Every structure is written in C-alpha cells, then in structure tokens.
Amino acid sequence: MDLAPGECAELWNVTHPDRVREVAASYVQAGSDLILTNTFQGSPLALERHGLAERTAELNAAGARISLEAAAGTGVLVAASIGPSGMLLEPLGTLSLEQLEAAFQAQIRAVVGAGVRLLCVETMIAIEEACAAVRAGRAVARELGVELEVMATLSYEGTPAGFRTVMGVDIPAAVQALERAGADVQGSNCGNGIEQMVPIAAEYRRHTGRPLLIQANAGLPRLSGGRTVFRQSPADMVRWVPELIAAGANIIGGCCGTGPEHIRALREAVDRVR
Predict the structure, then answer these.
(1) Which of 156, 227, 235, 273 lies at a C-alpha separation of 20 to 30 Å from 96?
(2) Who contacts 217 (Cβ-Cβ below 8 Å, separation ≥6)?
(3) pLDDT tens-digit profile of 18-61?
(4) Domain map of the chain by residue range?
(5) Contact 125, 84 (CB under 8 A)
(6) Which CATH number fits domain 1-147: 3.20.20.150, 2.60.300.12, 3.20.20.330, 3.40.50.1780?
(7) Which tens digit of pLDDT belongs to each residue from 180-189?
C-alpha cells in the first residue's frame, strides 16, 4: 500500500482509512474467521517515537472502527492488535511496570470504546511486557464493565536450550506467567516460518490445555533491492497445516508476508483437515 519505511502505520487510520479498510476487507474476503486492527504500534509509548502520543485514543479508535466496518455483517471477529512498546523495563531500561501498564490501558481503552471485544497481544519477547498488556486488558474490562477475551503470543527462536525469545523466555515459563496474568488464548507469532511453528505448537500443547494460536511468517525474510521479501508461497505454507493442527494448534493465521492468497489457501487447508 506504499507505506514508507519508518512511517507511522497507525496514522494511516485517519489519513488513508480507505487503504487500511481495503487491507482488512481483503482478509475477510479470503476466508478469515478473525482479522486484526491496524494498531500494532498504537500504545502511547510507541506512538511517541512519531510525536503522536497525544493522539493515542484517536488513532486506536479509528483503527478499531475500520476493521469492524470491514467485518460488518460477515460474522468475522475483530481483535485489536497490541504490539510491544519497543522500550525496556527497569532495571535494563528506564520504563517502570506501572508506566507500561498505564500505556497499554490507554490503547486498550480506545479500541474497546470503539467496539472491539477481543485483544491480540502479539510479537512479544519479554514476558513481563506480555503480562502487563494482558493485565491492562483485564483492568480495562473491569473499568468499563465489558466482557473481553485476551490472546497473547510470543516470538521464539531455536536455541541449544530449546525455543526461547530474544529475552530468554522459554515456553513453560511463558505459559505459567500468562495464565496467572489472565490470558484466554496463548501461542506464538512471527519470527518463524510455518514449519518451525510445528514444534513450537507441540511444546505449548505439552504445557497448556488452553486454546492455542499460531501465526507464522511466510518464511524467513530476506532483503532484495532494499525491500524485505518473504518467499514462502501459499502452497509452501499449507502443506504444514495438518501437522500444525496435529501438534495442537486451534487457531491458525498468518504474520509477516502472508497476503490474502496465503490466508485463502490456509482456510481451504483447514477445511480439508476438518
């Protein structure tokens, strides 16, 4: 859609709403049961890097409304995308846990006020931050008196000690912490192609009976002509769907590089397994 590198994607919710709506609608048309909002970097901490923190409520509410409009009348669910702040908590950084939770609450309050009742806390690498976002969702639900479901997914990489996030979080520790924080759904997104997600899903299933969400990239990214390219085709992704379901995944989607054609193919593959 010609979003420039370094440009604030969330600002497009008010400057280019038709383009954002087109993206959301394309995934509805591809057969998604669930789509996200264009609010991944919508916390005031993340927006501050663009000088937009004071527009947190406006940009997140607009992002929520756009996806809700794209899904209207279809039965497709909408989840607000809640991504990492990009900042480090004390003592590694200067951000306190209270500041972080307050920032997530501001973002979540806006999307809930616009009508979203499902959160997708995603692409987390620090368990403290993931739990802060989940707790923020629970706090806003109590404050506003609404029912709110919260999904939380972390990004892992393979190490000699097993799957861990960049901050060293392993899957058993993530499961325990997120269950205490109140996550309804757990899992993993980003950082891996779908074939690497199979053992990640299996490890999650060994430690939790909760619903499991897996959103793989369309392969690992490569730089080509100054652009990030994901080379895994829809056919490459769908051949792993039976194994991913057998490993315990309940919700299968796509992260970086997965366009509508990938999702259409995944939809068909899931239906075949059913």
Answers:
(1) 156
(2) 190, 191, 192, 193, 230, 232, 254, 255, 256, 257, 258
(3) 999 999 999 999 999 999 999 999 999 999 999 999 999 999 99
(4) 1-147
(5) yes
(6) 3.20.20.330
(7) 999 999 999 9
